[in-house]
Specification:
The protein has 123 residues and is mostly beta strands. The protein has strands spanning 3-7, 10-13, 18-25, 33-39, 46-52, 58-60, 68-73, 78-83, 92-99, 112-113, 117-122.
Length: 123
Amino acid sequence: QLQLVESGGGLVQSGGSLRLSCVFHGHTMVNYAIGWFRQAPGKEKRRLACIAADDGSATYVDSVKGRFTLSRDIAKNTVYLHMSSLKPEDTAVYYCATGQPSICPFPYEYDYWGQGTQVTVSS
């Protein structure tokens, strides 16, 4: 059974950086697309970015483009979301999700989701 586990969230000051991790358990991440989402209190879950595990190509929504970067380590079965120039409005629970095939933007519903990790940005 494929499971995703996020980590790396925490409290950071405005302008700071964090790196979130999403680890695949029970399956290799090759041939999957991995998406990142966030959900702020009282708001809907929003898509942020996607990385194709096969070739590492990534796409981003405009609100995070230039500040957030995705990378992956095939050997560690892990995807990283590098976040910089963080703003208080980036405060949310961040989720990774995955599905097949390995293409971004991902045109389908993701099949597997992690439990989320809290990111809080103080002003």
